[in-house]
Structure prediction request, 340 residues.
Amino acid sequence: MKRGLCLLWIAFSFHVAWGQDFAAKFMEQCAAEQGENLRCQTISPKMMEKLVEVMASENKEKDEEIPAYLLSKLKSARIVTSTGHGKKLFRKAEELMEKNKNRFTPWGEEDPERTNPVFVRKHGDTICELVMLSLTADKKNFTIVNFTGEMDEEFMQTLSAGKIPRE
Amino acid sequence: MDYKYIEQLVERYWQCQTSVEEEAILKAFFSQERVPEHLQTYKAWFAGEKLWQDSKPGPDFDTRIMARIGHEEHVVKARRMTLAKRLMPFYKAAASVAIILTLGNAAQNSFRHPADEGNGYNYESYQDSYDDPAMAYDQMTDALQMVSQSLSETQRQDSLLHPAPGDQPNQKQ
Prediction:
């Protein structure tokens, strides 16, 4: 029986660990100790499709706010936010990124002093995962933005150009 | 005198094929004073009293016999079966099914084309935080703005570190 349960546990953990994005891994590591200070908001591929449909059909004003092209390239999004222990969490995220350095490469020049680095995971020429870590100036609040999808050069240029108006 | 019958009886006696009556005949024969010479050797056996004693096995007969033939007494004890033990076959079956399904699922996904599957992400495990697309849209706006800002800063810093030839102020014309 013990052997059976052990195999079941291994199979379950394999199933859970398989196909996780960075934010999910980070939450798995840190959510238990941080409790309610750490929140993860998920936008699944289904919701993302809805957003694209809504933008394409009804809301013309919002269409100007975010180019529909950007959303069409995304499959999912996770936004992890913390309201405390920002510096500690930022370090943990950096450590996790270091552990996964075979998967992710920094976008642009690597700078250890940067408080909002962007990392990408490529599949061929396409970026399949984009992770941004962000620490506020007061080092209290920490954010991870994690996109998955098929992000091409044009996507990155559009975002880099800062064409999304601020509220 | 022909002792063929007696000889046959003796022969059958040693093969354990004689009846009680036939053994009585043998006893009567060998109890005589005059026994032929070639049968003298059996006299002591058949005429002896010990052979015909109505002996009964003692109380430990069974135990001794069983010990000789190497049989040990099997003690059957009643065992209490817990519910977990009773359900063990079901657990095993469930574990086997789960393992097969998981491995099958993993194998199926690994053989799929990455573009169809979203580059290996398990999107089935994604649970939406928002039911309202408008709220999700606002969240996406914020997220994209943050990334946009970060990318712009990165680009700006990189261009300062590695300025393009046309951007260098001291470049000779």
